[in-house]
TrEMBL record:
Major location category of this protein: secreted
Pfam family, one: NIDO
Alphabetical list of SMART domains matching this protein: EGF (SM00181), G2F (SM00682), LY (SM00135), NIDO (SM00539), TY (SM00211)
Domain EGF-like span(s) in chain numbering: 668-709
Residue span(s) of domain NIDO: 106-268
LDL-receptor class B repeats: 857-899, 900-942, 943-987
Domain Nidogen G2 beta-barrel residues, every copy: 430-667
Cellular component, GO annotation: basement membrane; plasma membrane
Protein name (Swiss-Prot/TrEMBL): Nidogen 1
Signal peptide range in chain numbering: 1-28
InterPro entries in the record: 6-blade_b-propeller_TolB-like, Cueball_EGF_LRP_Nidogen, EGF, EGF-type_Asp/Asn_hydroxyl_site, G2_nidogen/fibulin_G2F, GFP, Growth_fac_rcpt_cys_sf, LDLR_classB_rpt
Thyroglobulin type-1 domain span: 713-786
GO molecular function, a single term: Wnt receptor activity
Length: 1114
């Protein structure tokens, strides 16, 4: 079977390459060979215009699509889509993909038929001539299938124009596209036929109203939003999404006829994805190939949790590709091999480079990557990064977790002192809070009218070291409140998540990280109907609380008003398999009715319970101990109550998880398991042998474990409590009122450097006292690059040496990581990652900017905690502080190695200064028209200075001479958050990285033309250059990333062992570049500061020259 699959994939690769490699391919599809269309064929005509949607086209028979078989109407859009439900107005023009509606997209782009620029025709056709022709097309693509359609939807976009926006690209003037889609259906299946005639695709990109630039078209299918309780993206398949693959649509085929593409879109085989045909173009003409001798490297990688993306991929992200990347409409026919290798989502690197095929499922898909194909001297390069690595995905792990790479991918695991699945981690023993919403539609007793409630709050508080959960659901109508009392499992799922773990067993949070869905069914014995419970846990939110959504639907027995319900302790067996947990049990409960005539009648009832929990687990770590196939949840101290006055339903349960047992073996008598340990509620109970145990205070608390006290509150924590108390929201189980801003504190209680308003989505930077930094407020959806001005507390342990560890010979990258500088050797342009080591430890500082003096082999840095500017020699010795007075927030720093000066930006004082290398003779160059200056670099030979200002209202890159004259704006358009800046003296290129546009860009300052080097970066901060490469630090990846400018492609990434933010980066050259300026010799004849200019120099005096004999001259 594997050999067969390999042959199929090889055949698919040839199908796309042959039209490009062979002369004289099969004849092109002519326009006359399209299915007949136009008014004479009974076609309806879509109104002329932009972003229009047709009325519903009612179908005589059902269209099948993915797993649906009940689609009875479709909608046709101007923009190359046939929709299976009416597109909402906000999605009328191309934007996010997949859309919320089902879509068949033969050419998804922003098309325009305004003023008669083309026509869109559509109809349903039942005539034998059309259905027979559709059957023939399908048979060519799927020769083993017997398919006889009874109807066909024929949609034709004839001579449609591209929407061009305000720019009106002259290259697209007069360009028109013609293409056709036919959806053929029988009683059991549906197929899509896409037809692209010769010269039918004259343009391949259109202007995006969202991206504000030209973007390629997309050929794709999308199931749309799915889900009964929670709407989420269904499966979707993308077959072409860059210029090269779009151009090949008319030249190639998957059905043996050039320009004709066939897909199985609705049948039992398409539940998880559309199935493309796989007939090789040209084989009908007698071409033969020996599949056994193919020189193809085809890799199949099984992806786990870290590889699955369920959030919408932006249209922008899906169209990015490297300069030498060719997107292939398909590689594998899932019809023949889907059961063993279902197609999967793109790897993380697809942000920058195209995958051969992009198919997105809901459950553990696979990905097929073509590595490289070489025939007749032509090389076609495909994305080879099928294995997800920590370098690209560290952000998917919790900040309290470590990321490790394995042969097939990466996994996250919580560090010591924390528990969870690695993606989500919480402090061991710390109380937890769960917030969410509940809605229900419940029939009570024999009533035929349901009780409906929506948007009801659920809050839960968990004492983790007792496994005890307290859950409250508010505003439950009394007509149903008492009847819901037996349903303790609604809150019991939270108890399972944080059940006390016996040795070798795992509770729900350790397994799932609080990210899972649960569906349960309750059948009440002797009572008609049942109740379905659906819950979705979405992990930890920005407030550190777990989130849950719950829906109840069905029928429950009526319990009289005022009754009480008692549930005996019970056990339940949980059965584990890959990503699925199931359980079932029978439970009794006693209903005691209100006292009447001196008696309180009691009745015992029974219900049967079964549930399924689905989650994503990391499958790459083979060394991770397997979960026991069965674990037993023990629940005692069950308490249920309905408060009629407050309309609150309460459940309280104590839980532990362990082995299947009868009775109470000795092991269960450990106080940690049975809740008699006496540890503080903010402590973790650590079981020892037999009945021994210890209590350990949770992170953030101090004490002996029996008594734990919170570390003294900071100003941020006090402010937070004051605001919540004044708003009546001090109860942690109550949600924060909408519109209220509550400051966020970091793990150490200090103001988080980035603050956001949850209601508006705006974010801004704050200083150490919580005051907003001017010019940093960003619009919703963009996070400013804020810097923490408080150094993390120094951990107890042996003191780290502060002396510099000398560097070996060669060129090195130096990068800052909070309180240390690391060195990363370069061999050519290759990072020798295994040889990376610490260069300098300064744990009480937050180092931001780095610069290197190639003459004295000295590294300079800025520190925003003291604040100060320091330096150290690469040859070893103690670091020294050269400036510590009159600084606000020094960030970027640059060295003029010829003039022997340093320059730096200060974003707090909003100025740029210069000084000698020893920190003396300071002079302010600029202190106007600066808001958030950051990156700064010098061109020593030419005497130029460059810097960035990420002022949110007016981001810019400026330049001047080194003496401060001739200041001007170099770049102002299309900037977001320009952070890092570098100047390469060898190529004379100025390059920068932008965390707002997620781009790296370069230009030659002497030439106005500007080019993009790479899009799709995650959150770049600082950048340096060496040879053909840029190297930048990335906040989301916590990595140093190498970018090859020659091919505009990320080629490597280094992730330090310590997972904290990386800041400045510089290149420590083994020798200085050639060149000189007018300050190189004898300080240019100046008495003090010699500041180079193009072809000259200026002598300047320091700002404080009282009593100093200084001469200024040009």
């Amino acid at each position: 079977m594997l050999a067969s699959s390999s042959r199929i994939r090889a055949a698919w690769t040839r199908a796309l390459l042959l039209p490009l490699l062979l002369a004289g391919p099969v004849g092109c599809l002519s326009r006359q060979e399209l299915f007949p269309f136009g008014p004479g064929q009974g076609d309806l005509e879509l109104e002329d215009g932009d972003d229009l949607v047709s009325p519903a086209l009612e179908l005589s028979g059902a269209l099948r699509f993915y797993d649906r078989s009940d689609i009875d109407s479709v909608y046709v859009t101007t923009n190359g889509i046939i929709a299976t439900s009416e597109p909402p107005a906000k999605e009328s023009h191309p934007g996010l993909f997949p859309p919320t509606f089902g879509a068949v997209a033969p050419f998804l782009a922003d098309l325009d038929t305004t003023d008669g620029l083309g026509k869109v025709y559509y109809r349903e056709d039942l005539s034998p001539s059309i259905t027979q022709r559709a059957a023939e097309c399908v048979h060519r693509g799927f020769p083993e299938i017997s398919f006889q359609p009874s109807s066909a939807v024929v949609v034709t976009w004839e001579s449609v124009a591209p929407y061009q926006g305000p720019s009106r690209d002259p290259d697209q003037k007069g360009k028109r596209n013609t293409f056709q889609a036919v959806l053929a259906s029988s009683d059991s299946s549906s197929y899509a036929i896409f037809l692209y005639p010769e010269d039918g695709l004259q343009f391949h990109t259109t202007f995006s109203k969202k991206e504000n630039n030209q973007v390629p078209a997309v050929v794709a299918f999308s199931q749309g939003s799915v889900g009964f309780l929670w709407k989420s993206n269904g499966a979707y398949n993308i077959f072409a999404n860059d210029r090269e693959s779009i151009e090949n649509l008319a030249k190639s085929s998957n059905s043996g006829q050039q320009g004709v593409w066939v897909f199985e879109i609705g049948s039992p085989a398409t539940t998880n994805g559309v199935v493309p045909a796989d007939v090789i173009l040209g084989t009908e003409d007698g071409a033969e190939y020996d599949d056994e001798d193919e020189d193809y490297d085809l890799a199949t990688t099984r992806l786990g949790l870290e590889d699955v993306g369920t959030t919408p991929f932006s249209y922008k992200a899906l169209r990015r590709g490297g300069a030498d990347t060719y997107s292939v409409p398909s590689v594998l026919s899932p019809r023949r091999a889907a059961t063993e290798r279902p197609l999967g989502p793109p790897t993380e690197r697809t942000r920058s480079f195209q995958l051969a095929v992009e198919t997105f499922h809901q459950q553990q898909p696979q990905v097929i990557d073509v590595d490289e194909v070489e025939e007749t001297g032509v090389v076609f390069s495909y994305n080879t990064d099928s294995r997800q690595t920590c370098a690209n995905n560290r952000h998917q792990c919790s900040v309290h977790a470590e990321c490790r790479d394995y042969a097939t991918g990466f996994c996250c695991s919580c560090v010591a002192g924390y528990t969870g699945n690695g993606r989500q981690c919480v402090a061991e023993g710390s109380p937890q809070r769960v917030n969410g919403k509940v809605k229900g539609r419940i029939f009570v007793g024999s009533s035929q009218v349901p009780i409906v409630f929506e948007n009801t709050d659920l809050h839960s508080y968990v004492v983790m070291n007792h496994g005890r959960s307290y859950t409250a659901i508010s505003t439950i109508p009394e007509t149903v409140g008492y009847s819901l009392l037996p349903l303790a499992p609604v809150g019991g799922i939270i108890g399972w998540m944080f059940a006390v773990e016996q040795d070798g067993f795992k509770n729900g949070f350790s397994i799932t990280g609080g990210e899972f869905t649960r569906q349960a069914e309750v059948t009440f014995v002797g009572h008609p109907g049942n109740l379905v419970i659906k819950q979705r846990f979405s992990g930890i939110d920005e407030h550190g609380h777990l989130t849950i959504d719950t829906e109840l639907e069905g029928r429950v027995p009526q319990i009289p008003f005022g009754s009480s319900v008692h549930i005996e302790p019970y056990t339940e067996l949980y059965h584990y398999s890959t990503s699925v947990i199931t359980s079932s049990s029978t439970r009794e409960y006693t209903v005691t009715e209100p006292e009447r005539d001196g008696a309180s009648p009691s009745h015992i009832y029974t219900y049967q319970w079964r549930q399924t929990i689905t989650f994503q687990e990391c499958v790459h770590d083979d060394s991770r101990p397997a979960l026991p196939s069965t674990q037993q949840l023990s629940v005692d101290s069950v308490f249920v109550l309905y408060n009629q006055e407050e309309k609150i339903l309460r459940y309280a349960l104590s839980n532990s998880i362990g082995p299947v047992r009868e009775g109470s073996p000795d092991a269960l008598q450990n106080p940690c398991y049975i809740g008699t340990h006496g540890c503080d509620t903010n402590a973790a109970c650590r079981p020892g042998p037999r009945t021994q145990f210890t209590c350990e205070c949770s992170i953030g608390f101090r004490g002996d474990g029996r008594t734990c006290y919170e570390v003294e509150k900071t100003r941020c924590q006090h402010e937070r409590e004051h605001i919540l108390g004044a708003a009546g929201a001090a109860d942690p189980q109550r949600p924060i009122p909408p519109g209220l801003f509550v400051p966020e504190c970091d793990a150490h209680g200090h103001y988080a450097p980035t603050q956001c308003h949850g209601s508006t989505g705006y974010c801004w930077c704050v200083d150490r006292d919580g005051r907003e930094v001017e010019g940093t407020r960003t619009r919703p959806g963009m996070t400013p690059p804020c810097l923490s001005t408080v150094a993390p507390p120094i951990q107890q342990g042996p003191a780290l040496p502060t002396a510099v560890i000398p560097l070996p010979p060669g060129t090195h990258l130096l990068f800052a990581q909070t309180g240390k500088i690391e060195r990363l050797p370069l061999e050519g342009n290759t990072m020798r990652k295994t040889e990376a080591k610490a260069f300098l430890h300064v744990p009480a500082k937050v180092i931001i900017g780095l610069a290197f003096d190639c003459v004295d082999k000295m590294v300079y840095w800025t520190d925003i905690t003291e604040p100060s500017i320091g330096r150290a020699s690469l040859h070893g010795g103690e670091p020294t502080t050269i400036i510590r007075q009159d600084l606000g927030s020094p960030e970027g720093i640059a060295v003029d190695h010829l003039g022997r000066n340093i320059f730096w930006t200060d974003s707090n004082l909003d100025r740029i200064e210069v000084a000698k290398l020893d920190g003396t003779q300071r002079r302010v160059l600029f202190e106007t028209d600066l808001v958030n200056p950051r990156g700064i670099v010098t061109d020593s030979v030419r005497g130029n200075l460059y810097w960035t200002d990420w002022n949110r209202d007016n981001p810019k890159i400026e330049t001047s001479y080194m003496d401060g004259t001739n200041r001007r704006i170099l770049v102002q358009d299309d900037l977001g958050l320009p952070n890092g800046l570098t100047f390469d003296v060898f190529s004379s290129q100025l390059c920068w990285v932008d965390a707002g546009t997620n781009r790296a860009e370069c230009l030659n300052p002497s030439q106005p033309s500007r080019r993009k080097a790479l899009e799709g970066l995650q959150y770049p901060f600082a950048v340096t250059s060496y040879g053909k490469n840029l190297y930048f630090t990335d906040w989301k990846m916590n990595s140093v990333v190498a970018l090859d400018l020659a091919i505009s492609k990320e080629t490597d990434a280094f992730q330090p062992h310590k997972q904290t933010r990386l800041y400045g980066i510089t290149t420590a050259l083994s020798q200085c570049p050639r060149g000189h300026n007018y300050c190189s010799v004898n300080n240019g004849g100046c008495t003090h500061l010699c500041l180079a200019t193009p072809g000259s120099r200026t002598c300047r005096c320091p700002d404080n020259t009282l009593g100093v004999d200084c001469i200024e001259r040009k």
